[in-house]
Amino acid sequence: MKRRTGLAVVALVALSACTSPIPGSAEPTPKDGNGHQRTLGDVTTAEAMTRLCRSPSVKGASPPSGSTQTVVAEVEREVEQIRGLSFLRSVPVEAVSPAQLMQGIQQLTAESLPKNMYARRSLAWGTMGAVPNGTDLAKLLGESSGAGVIGYYQPETGGLRFIGTANSSPDQLVTLAHELTHAIDDQHFDFQKMEASIGACQDDRGLALQSLVEGNATYIMRVWAQRNLSPIALFGVSLKAIAEPHPKLGGVPNFLKDGLFPYEAGLKFVEALVRRGGVQAIDSAFRNPPVSTEQILHPNRYPKDRPQRVDVPDYGPALGPGWKDLDVEEVGEEWLASLLGLRLATSSAEIGSAGWDGGLYRAWSHGMDVAVVLTTVWDSHAQATEFAVRMDDWILGGQQADILPVTGDRVNVIFATDADTLARLKTVVETLH
Is 396 within 8 Å of 378 (Cβ atoms)? Predict the structure, then answer.
């Protein structure tokens, strides 16, 4: 299951609820230190998300044709036994060459990438330091798509393709078990409906759903391999997975480097579900999916610990004429840990992101000038302070960024492309907050 929204996956600034002055109110319009009027815009965060985060409609390639191969039918039956579900309909399966598989993946990637959104997000992330300035996220994601992949399932068509031959190898069969798990889950729980329930720019929630989907397919695949492969074949599959090359991407968060989070963290999440209630607990999770990567990383917080809703007012007009919404995105614990991990030790990044309880960034631009407000809320004041301290360590000398005083469980971080914009943004946030 491929995500078709932005990768979750951001640095945040936490603000308490702020509203525009009530029309007709006698309350004076706030002014900055120079006596200039500062007024909030009227574009809500929800409206900005709806307008800025539109993903293309993906049709997918035509479903594979032809009868189900004997080996596919055998793996289907074995997946049914392990998963505890039955296929509701036949799954079109096509064994293809590596070149054909890569062509199909690149086609799906080209269809699904919202290039305009990623162009804007590249500016926002570059301003925050999440990626090097000048990074083209759409190009980066397009070039890295398909690396190490030997099969994929398409919810749009209900069919799957995998690199297969007349005498399929163990790793090809393992992939088939993984993708058939996607198919049986989709038939019972409707992936497209589940994806449609996730709002625009809710990338952390999307990554949590993807982690459930991929984690379960990885779990069932592993059980299938343990039951059906010899120890030597199982060792060979494991060794090949470890040695599989991944694109070399420097200076970008982990979730862009290898895309392994949904598989690794998702597997641990599903294992925790199974320990808690068997495979029936997996079914319950599909009916009530996790809503944050915090729940994936800490299964004991699923399903009750839900994040707070965070909002960032429309500061664009207060920055001056011509400033417009550039990007907005909800961010979670995994994004923050990856961001901090770009410059801090893994242990420090994990401590700094622990206790996350909600987050959002919102960015505005005027030409190539960019301003970003990053807002996070935390389980306690101590954890909010811990995040602020780690962010202070993370910000580079000369980087146009500032951490505003911690207020309760909230942390406010601001970023800009230049010192003048940062100063104006700070004045605006402090005046109108």
Answer: no
Lowest mean pLDDT segment, chosen from 55-64, 81-90, 352-361: 55-64
Query: With pLDDT > 70 as the criterion, what percentage of the chain qualifies?
Result: 84
Residue for token digits 């399932």? 153
C-alpha to C-alpha distance for 324 and 322, rounded to whole angstroms: 6
| Residue 278 DSSP symbol | T
Taking the C-alpha atoms of residue 109 and residue 209, their distance in angstroms, rounded to an integer, is 19
3-class DSSP state of 159: strand
CB 36, CB 423: distance < 8 Å: no
The CA-based dihedral angle spanning residues 19, 20, 24, 27, taken in that order and rounded to the nearest 10 degrees: 80
pLDDT, tens digit (0-9, with 9 covering 90-100), for 12-67: 222 222 222 222 223 334 444 554 456 899 999 999 999 999 877 766 555 555 44
Q: Are 342 and 11 in contact (CB under 8 A)?
A: no
DSSP-derived letter for residue 403 is: E
- Give dist(CA 58, CA 73) in Å, integer: 28
For 56, 68, 157, 310, the CA distances from 60, given in Å and listed in that order, are 12, 20, 7, 35
* Contact between residue 283 and residue 346 where contact means Cβ atoms under 8 Å apart: no
Contacts 24+ apart (CB under 8 A), 141-147: 141/7, 141/109, 141/113, 141/256, 142/106, 142/109, 142/110, 142/113, 143/247, 144/247, 144/249, 144/256, 144/259, 145/105, 145/106, 145/109, 146/101, 146/102, 146/105, 146/106, 146/109, 147/245, 147/246, 147/247
DSSP 35-104: S-B----S--HHHHHHHH--PPP---SPPP-SPPPHHHHHHHHHHHHHHT---SS---EEEE-HHHHHHH
